[in-house]
Amino acid sequence: MFCSCLGHQQKQLVDPDIENDSREDPSGGFGPSKLGVRTTVDEPLSASQAIEALQAGNRRFVQGDAKAGGLDHRARRALASHGQRPVATVIGCADSRCPVEQLFDARPGDLFVLRNAGNTCTHSEGSMVGSVEYSVAILETKMILVLGHTGCGAIMGATKIFLERSAQKHIEATCQKDAKETTDQSTQASESEQPPQPGDCKSRSTLLGLLDALVPVAEKACVELGGGSTEEIAAHAVKVNVWRTINFLLSYSLIIREKVASGELELQGAIYNMSSGAVEFLGKSPKQAELLNYDGHVVPSMGGLARQLS
Ligand SMILES: [Zn+2]
Q1: Which of residues 247 and 190 earns the better pLDDT score?
Q2: CA–CA gap between residue 139 and residue 8 (Å, rounded)
Q3: Are 40 and 13 in contact (CB under 8 A)?
């Protein structure tokens, strides 16, 4: 049983008044919609159709040719009466500059959108993964797009914490080495008097805990780049984080793994460039084949097997 706020999926008799208004999707990008907006009277789109619709919508957005406008009363009534049949699930960042529907020129009913800071599944993972399972199992979306973006504040914050922590460790290591050369006793004093690390913030706020959980993303980005400026590492970490979210979903959802393995569902990554407005589509995770052999059924906070994701 699902919350009614997610929309009732039961097919209902088409309102005669609405049926007479049958027309093609005026935006031209999200497939045929019998009632002018996508509802359960429409068929689900395939993954390839969905990604084409997303790409076409983003092109309209970049070219300043967006067509998705307000809904008239008939379209609103169709959505309210006939339930939703979105073409794709998009996991985006909560950043106000990355409005998912607008940048894909989508209207209500076109996309099932999940957003949080850093487009991540590491926190509130039960609600995120459960929502994705709902969208693919009940709403029949065939494409899950994890959407990062340039200039992500959450990723930048995590990168700064990582670099500050690395610098602190370097200083401590240097101090300990110097101290060891004098006496072992002074080394012990140095270790026992460690100042709080900049990233040691789990107890101070949930937001800092969220950034702390993204630190491994920055670390991996730094390793893959072989070092770099804060901006360079953060930019690469955006992509690393997209893969990490996809890998998390594959690791902890049997529903998703089964549908991906059978070819019913695809998970792809993408990065929205806030400057150009364009979305770079990255395709599937390089680790997908490996992760399809995992056996997680629920997320770690719900008792699943803990896995170290990379
Ligand atoms: Zn962001």
Answers
A1: 247
A2: 10
A3: no
For 191-226, how does the pLDDT look when each residue is reduced to its tens digit (9 = 90+)? 333 444 444 444 478 888 888 989 999 999 999 999
Token duo for residue 122: 């590491």
Distance 187 CA to ligand 1 centre (A): 41
pLDDT of residue 304: 52
The domain in which residue 289 lies consists of: 9-151+243-302
Which residues are annotated binding-site positions? 93, 95, 149, 152
Residue 4 maps to a domain? no
307 CA distance to ligand 1 middle (Å): 25
Facing residues of 271 across strands?
148, 280
| Dihedral sign (CA 299, 303, 304, 309) | positive
Higher pLDDT, 199 or 133: 133
Annotated binding site for Zn(2+): 93, 95, 149, 152
CA 218 to ligand 1 center in whole angstroms: 14
Q: How far is the CA of 147 from the centre of ligand 1 (A)?
A: 9
Query: How does the average pLDDT of the chain come out, rounded?
Result: 81
Encode pLDDT of 6-19 as tens digits.
444 444 444 444 44
Question: How far does residue 97's CA lie from ligand 1's centre (Å)?
Answer: 9
Tell which of 191, 214, 235 closes a domain: 235
CA of 66 to the centre of ligand 1 (A): 23
Asked if residue 309 is part of any domain, the answer here is no
Distance 74 CA to ligand 1 centre (A): 35
Both structure tokens of 135: 């969208």
Q: Same structural domain for residues 146 and 162?
A: no
